[in-house]
Design goal:
This is G-protein coupled receptors family 1 profile domain-containing protein. The chain is mostly helical. Helices cover 79% and strands 4% of the residues.
Length: 317
């Protein structure tokens, strides 16, 4: 059908752009020593998770939408939502860490810009982000179940749906944890994965912008370039937060509708809304590296330099 062809085309664009863009960010940060500041390490960390999300979850979601069955059964039914929620946590904590790092940079523009941190410090910060996001998303594994429904149409295969339902076979402690999480899931996701990064980024970016303006007024001519770079990086963080917030809004709308208006909304509409929220999540993971290459001048320059270096080699081959 036309809808399926359009979905395939959109999926291929998101997949190819996301894979290429996130690999480019990783290669730029890992291959250039002067790019290994804490900010760029945080961006590379975000690119790793976005790559995993697009490479693993996007094909699974599209396969289910086209065939109405999960490729690996209950495993993907549980793991795909878990990874999607964990990706929200990774992005949220990365944005907060970037805001804090930009504020630190604005307080001492002369010394901090592109400062190389030791491996232990960087690894510790990235580990806090990953461990926190993965642990906070664990309850998603408890509330997901795969159900098989008959369509009622002759010669039509049954439909597999991944729904929010807690298994009665779970131990009492996990069952209570699942019930508590299910009851608080709507406002937990809204507060932690939408309000926190949005409000924190806005507040911290405003304070950082004031610090940068004061530094610009008090600086000598030689520091103007570094101050401009700091200002661009601050704007880049704000742009990332705006894109993230815009892509997370449908997910929150879907949660609200599911919690309060599910009885009055057709099941087909609910499935389309949920699919839209998933595709926007993948779209955010694909747009982020392109946005970084366009707005962050050091990353964009390093990307162009790598292209210029590789083109003569390709032509010689």
């Amino acid at each position: 059908s036309r809808r399926r062809r359009g979905m395939r085309g959109c999926t291929w664009v998101i997949f190819l752009v996301g894979i290429a863009g996130n690999i480019a960010i990783l290669c730029i940060v890992c291959q250039n020593y002067y790019m290994k500041s804490i900010s760029n390490s945080l961006l590379a960390n975000l690119a790793v998770w976005d790559f995993v999300l697009i490479f693993f979850c996007l094909p699974m979601v599209v396969f289910h939408e086209l065939t109405k069955s999960w490729l690996l059964g209950e495993f993907t039914c549980k793991v795909v939502p878990y990874m999607e929620v964990a990706s929200l946590g990774v992005t949220t904590f990365t944005l907060c860490a970037l805001c804090i790092d930009r504020f630190r940079a604005a307080t001492n523009v002369q010394m901090y810009y592109e400062m190389i941190e030791n491996c232990t410090s960087t690894t510790a910060k990235l580990a806090v982000i990953w461990i926190g996001a993965l642990l906070l998303a664990l309850p998603e594994l408890l509330i997901r179940q795969l159900v098989v429904e008959d369509t009622g149409i002759p010669d039509e295969p049954p439909v597999e749906r991944c729904i929010i339902r807690i298994s009665a076979s779970l131990p009492d402690t996990l069952y209570v944890l699942g019930l508590t999480y299910e009851g608080a899931r709507l406002w937990w996701c809204f507060g932690c994965y939408f309000c926190l990064p949005t409000l924190f980024t806005i507040g911290c970016s405003v304070v950082t912008a004031r610090k940068i303006r004061r530094a610009e007024q008090a600086s000598v001519r030689n520091n103007k370039k570094q101050i401009r770079l700091e200002s661009q990086m601050n704007c880049t963080v704000v742009a990332l937060a705006i894109v993230y917030g815009a892509c997370v809004v449908p997910e929150n709308i879907c949660n609200i509708v599911s919690a309060y208006m599910a009885a009055g909304v057709p099941e087909h509409t609910m499935s389309i809304l949920h699919l839209l929220s998933q595709l926007l999540l993948f779209c955010r993971a694909a747009v982020t590296p392109a946005l970084l290459l366009l707005l962050c001048r050091p990353l964009g320059r390093a990307f162009l330099d790598s292209l210029c270096c590789s083109c003569p080699k390709i032509l010689l081959v």
